[in-house]
């Protein structure tokens, strides 16, 4: 269940200066404590606009943070919205830096008589820089729902099942009446059955009742604490000792360097180290470093060797230098609504074997379970230990922040071992993160003795290690804005043994500024007169055309385009082209099994694809350039010698049926609507024939139908073989061998064909206009947990022109001018956020979910249409908005708007042509349709020549045709086609009036009471 949880995240801040208590240069307070002045971290005002990320996952930003660090009073102030929360930190979240506290009461915590735990492990001297770690809280979106077993452990008491939607405490449910169970394990000292009088969320005598999961847990109306992870299905204290958090501890002890030894626990039940480290309940996890059993073993052995004062010093050392690996919720089947386990995992390392060398193997009986175990030293790989830790805490249902905190701690330990101190991130806004993460900001504090020179560029390796260790990133980046932001951060003046002023001047120059003294870069000034898109074309006597374009590199794209497709299926079963697409690259005469096909393709690094459109079937492959001939041989064989076995046809029928079902059930039925607008515009002939196979034809299409269709349309004069990235002469030779001299199977075996084979359909597409309405309930179509909004879809279009028409670029520019998209688009450069459908439609009419324009041109005609979606109650309003936009299409064509549309269409054209498959399709389809290849550079020149008058002419030409209309969904509010057609013919929106609205012309006012929109056009 999605919920907002609060979790702790590590913050590291740096301050220059010498701090100590009683040191030579230290500042000693009256009480012997330590006080550090507030530490401001500022950013330049322009940082928001210029910032870039350090890691690609997720983004890290510098923010404004003000921190005050005192002895027992630590406050993190909230300085930016939605960032770090204001709260009082107590002695658990105390100073985490290594400070030379004096031995004695003045340097100890007055309450517990011991110095705060040092988590960083820095060894400071009087001249070192200090690094402080604070814990701050942030709000994170996380999953807080846990699933427990049916019965409580070792009982027959059944848990009440808690649905995910009701697991949070704030979700009240009258049906939630769980069984209550409270029992005290033998030999345990437990809380009373009635929690009255217990002090929760604080230290209650000898017991720490605070939680690591969030700042505070709630107390129910019955006085019982509430599990911060939500309802568990059983109330009471269960078999746990205490109400609220029951703190457990696991301490990992290691010694030596290189082949490190760990003090592990082995069970008598198995010889494997299945549970290598002891987990035992403790009373004050923040003041202990060993669980009770381990404490008796370690301290007992040390007492035999060391005096008591040395043991106290060792404990102090262990306490300060122990590293916290994990603190948080521990998923235990004994957890209840009112009692739960929390776990602290510490790591103590003795690389010199100064203390742990005296600790010997022991056989003990665990007091909690009565089980006999053996503790002994074992050499274990660190990876195995890390893996075991992950297995333990993986069950803890950690929040995103807790996971991040764990990674920060592991990074800190890693830097400790590498001798790199101090560089770790701070917190703030991740802003638009899709999982709702509120944030982590980063202030970089470079530690002493970390690198030879203090420059940001020299820390790329360190930044990379941080990214890899904490966030599993694979790349990172810096920018001038990031460099600028460092100028305001307090920085150490000494790095290693060098002062910043002693570093070379080159180290002080930002990366955005060229270094002085270097020769200036020379650039190519001579522009080659050769067209980089020059195509070579060869035509055989049979009519087969071969075209190629040079493109340097190790890979090429090769294939063939056939002048066929769904527009030619008037005399064949509709869906034949759909079947040919799905049966492409199946068995053929030279490659009769799928194993042979896969082996051939893998051998040459080839990827094959087949697509069918209204007017073409495309076979293509990308492969290594030196292996294009065997791949071309395979393409030719599947085109002219397919087998189409019964098993392959059966599989193809299943695939086609699945495709048709998917097209009809998609929440956003783009493919279906495009097919329907063609059917409405061309009245079920030529381009109006359906692209996808109708359900009733799936069983009809067989081998004879397919081969007969191929015999009719797979002729040399209707095929163009193209290649991008190979020598033209070699391509011609290969085509002569595999295409020109090949004898198709339908010529050698006429018995495989239909008795009567239709001739080529040479019909010219005739635009007629019309409408198609499909009434369908779309209220419950969804593909995810969250319901998809109920929408009704409308497509409105008019005739445009063919791609050989002089106005082709005019309509293409109109498409770029209108643009469009979804109402929830993230925007960005090139998205067309200033196109008319965004500015005039999506930004002004809240009820419109999507509005996108399209222009599709063919050899003999074309269609320009707008596809839009809205709630069924607003379908009549949507029709009026679309009509208004078509009427206003030729108005106010300002130079700035035209230039923007030209830039977008030109950039889209050239960027698409950077890909070999796109070049291949452009090359072959131009030659198939026009017989020549027009250079993209010529298109750019022609686009620049277009003026507003050209677009006005194209709009008038388009609106003089009859409207084509498609409605899909709940269409009760949709106006009649005759009413819409009459309004468009007369350019008068008043004719679209309904019982709800009245649209005036020439003035912005509404005549009826129930009117929240006004549609008008300027006279």
TrEMBL record:
Pfam families: NUDT9_N (PF25969), Peptidase_M16 (PF00675), Peptidase_M16_C (PF05193). SUPFAM superfamilies: LuxS/MPP-like metallohydrolase. Gene3D superfamilies: Metalloenzyme, LuxS/M16 peptidase-like. Residues 545-694 form the Peptidase M16 N-terminal domain. GO terms for biological process: protein processing involved in protein targeting to mitochondrion. Residues 701-904 form the Peptidase M16 C-terminal domain. GO terms for cellular component: mitochondrion. One of its GO terms (molecular function) is metal ion binding. It comes from the Eukaryota. Belongs to the peptidase M16 family. PANTHER family: METALLOPROTEASE, MITOCHONDRIAL-PROCESSING PEPTIDASE SUBUNIT ALPHA. Substrate recognition and binding subunit of the essential mitochondrial processing protease (MPP), which cleaves the mitochondrial sequence off newly imported precursors proteins. This is Mitochondrial-processing peptidase subunit alpha. It comes from Trichinella pseudospiralis (Parasitic roundworm). The gene is PMPCA.
